[in-house]
Specification:
- The protein is globular, with a radius of gyration of 19 Å.
- With 289 residues, it is α+β, with helices and mostly antiparallel strands.
- Strand 2 and strand 3 (48-54) form a beta hairpin.
- A five-stranded antiparallel beta sheet has the order 1-2-3-5-4, covered by helices on one side. A two-stranded antiparallel sheet has the order 6-9.
- It has helices spanning 16-19, 66-78, 113-127, 139-153, 158-175, 214-223, 231-237, 246-269, 275-288, and strands spanning 26-31, 39-45, 48-54, 85-88, 94-98, 183-185, 194-195, 201-202, 209-211.
């Protein structure tokens, strides 16, 4: 039984139903940084440290599927690439996992050739994991879905949105995505999702998918354009250099920038967003044009 949270312990921030599935008697908790849609907490108990992740139902409107997430996270954890899952709510409202010690990467790490090679090598290991039985992800279909929602909500922006869709269809052909095998990808390689000074552990599997392995590298370059200078090293360390040209990676990166821009724009349909999110959206738009 979970005891009544002590005042100031941080446990009052977490639903009692969630705390009931954390091993041991919860003593204190703190909100972890990162996470645009969901909330994660480090929970200290008599049995050790754990992470409780509470999902936001609105994330489904932006492409999240927590059932798919749980399967792909578990597959990555079995390969030592993600924290072990200890409990997944049957309705996927929350999950409990082991706490991973070690520093979270910083944005500066994504400008370091050694770190980028380490990440690309870890991605190769991930892409070698046997995919569980989940529907494959189609980035082209995702872009079309987001475009349809934006076009319906923002008819005055129809011409600009159609221009992006036309370019996306061309970029999809250039990326030659259809000919590569479908593998497990992380699909959200923000530095706050990278943990560890030694072996690298990947956090936050909400947008993980089974699809073209090139999407992971493209996602990384979409987030961190400074890493583009090391594109050849990334392709080599991820063992994609034999089948992927720089032009293919560039086309896939543009597609990932478009997905991110559409994602931020769809979020804004629900109401005002932070100045930081608005600046991110405008920055992505500038890179598309």
């Amino acid at each position: 039984m979970v005891q009544e949270p002590a005042a100031g312990s941080g446990l009052e921030l977490i639903p009692e139903e969630v705390l009931a599935h954390v091993p041991g008697n919860p003593l204190r908790a703190e909100r972890l940084p990162g996470g645009t849609m969901n909330r994660s907490f480090r929970v200290e108990t008599g049995a050790g440290l754990f992470v409780a992740r509470v999902h936001n139902e609105a994330a489904a409107t932006l492409g999240a599927d927590h059932g798919r997430e749980a399967k792909l996270h578990a597959a990555a954890a079995a390969a030592g690439l993600a924290p072990a899952l200890l409990h997944v709510d049957p309705r996927y409202r929350f999950m409990i996992m082991e706490h991973v010690p070690g520093p979270t990467w910083t944005e500066a790490d994504l400008s370091r050739p050694d770190r980028l090679r380490q990440l690309a090598s870890t991605l190769h290991a991930l892409h070698s994991v046997t995919p569980p039985d989940v529907p494959p992800f189609d980035i082209g279909a995702s872009i079309e879905r987001l475009h349809g929602r934006l076009s319906q909500a923002l008819p005055d922006e129809g011409a600009a949105l159609s221009h992006f869709i036309d370019r996306a269809r061309t970029a999809l052909l250039l990326s030659d995505s259809a000919r590569r095998p479908r593998v497990v990808i992380h699909n959200d390689l923000h530095h706050t999702n990278l943990m560890g000074a030694g072996p690298l552990v990947l956090l936050d599997w909400e947008y993980a998918a089974v699809t073209d392995p090139l999407i992971d590298l493209a996602c990384l370059l979409a987030y961190y354009p400074q890493a583009t200078a090391y594109a050849d090293a990334l392709l080599e360390a991820s063992q994609l250099s034999g089948e992927v040209s720089p032009a293919m990676l560039s086309a896939a990166t543009w597609l990932c920038i478009l997905v991110s821009y559409f994602w931020y724009r769809v979020r804004r349909l629900a109401g005002p967003v932070s100045a930081q999110d608005l600046a991110a959206e405008q920055g992505l738009l500038a890179r598309l044009e």
